[in-house]
């Protein structure tokens, strides 16, 4: 039986705008790899480790803002995509996940590399499709084409996310014949539309907004390049409005509170009432700050409006106070509401601004005398990393430290905060570096790097990739979050203390290697690290920091802020 329909698959993908595919070696998926390669319209990247491959595709899709195909062989290979699939689902990144499969009659019959692949990502997928294994009959050709058209469209509408296509292939696998494009079925086009708020409802919301004496806008994770700054600047002029953003919000708006954890530290139960808004307005993806989540859950504002175009998340009630879901994009909402705004006399914005200013001054005072530690390293990095770079922040400590520095908001910033796992951060940045016209820098911890070190296993690693590895000998986050540091099991079982270095890994995979162990050596290393490397190679900078000192410095920082 020929594999003619694989040529059809490649033709439909390219016709629908898929330009890149990440593939992992295998036998069952080899015919599909050949078909995609022979199409000449889809660029293929081979990544052997499927878990890393999934995150490479994630980083590429983040940059492209359109689906990247991800193709693996049958069996456990498909399960290795799961961490990237779930991250793409919660981060709303378009991925077209294609898993080659055995014929259905051989499932659960002891055949090699054969598992139950239908709906394998059931809880973390926009939709799943099981394609027919051949298209000889007209109805099978129609089904194959229709399902692929829908699968690609569903990666983007009604909201972006991963879609699974299971592709059963019969033997002989390598009887590959080019598809006769004269038989190419029609391509189904999906017309994107904008959801607008009806005028009557808009006027009602504007009336409620204008009468409220205090409004708090909290923005979550968003991709760079949105057009919200101009729209939100009108809202920011209102003295009754305070705007809170994070590094991953990618909003560089004058007057907003950029360092939430630093600002809200020390707001006691006695002070909560003054900061509690009449209206809480939220939009965007996940919020990093655990402190603001806890504070808002205590506040219980009378009204919480959440802007969310995703039909699967209409009742997302993170702060236990949701009263209204607005099923539109944030740009649409703010653009429609802006002409109806009226200035409200209030000291609410000033209250937030005064606290932010006072804590910022304490921040700089503390840094001036802080010893060498993770905290000091981040200060140096945010001062010296070129502003032209795309910045990726690994989990767990890098993304949290970034929220304490105003300078971190000056970058285009990315982070895997859909599920906030440590796996795949380096691979995601490497995938982004393949697509991005700008250099890409990732700051990662040692555990996250070691867990994802196969990200460096690539025949042609992107020359513009810079990896900054902060090696404090373990999962240092467990030394400063409340609880784990009180138990003797911390070092051997929770922190996973180690004495490994990344030098051998970096050199083995052809990366330029730099290291630093104090403020002076770090400052001296940064300029050559960001410069052009010999043979145009990517580079890794390993910064060794004292674990216990770093944890204590951060604990003392929050005490100092409110002292």
Could you walk me through the main structural features you see in this protein, from its secondary elements to its overall organization?
A six-stranded parallel beta sheet has the order 2-1-3-4-6-5, sandwiched between helices. It is of the alpha/beta class. The mean pLDDT is 91. It has three domains: 4-172, Thiamin diphosphate (ThDP)-binding fold, Pyr/PP domains (Rossmann fold, 3-Layer(aba) Sandwich); 199-354, Rossmann fold (3-Layer(aba) Sandwich), CATH 3.40.50.1220; 370-561, 3-Layer(aba) Sandwich (Rossmann fold), CATH 3.40.50. The chain has helices at residues 4-15, 30-38, 50-64, 76-80, 82-91, 138-154, 199-211, 228-236, 260-264, 269-275, 290-299, 330-337, 348-369, 374-384, 397-402, 425-435, 446-451, 477-480, 490-494, 503-508, 519-530, 547-561; strands at 20-23, 43-46, 68-72, 95-101, 128-130, 162-168, 215-219, 241-244, 279-283, 303-307, 324-326, 390-393, 412-414, 440-445, 465-471, 512-516, 539-544.
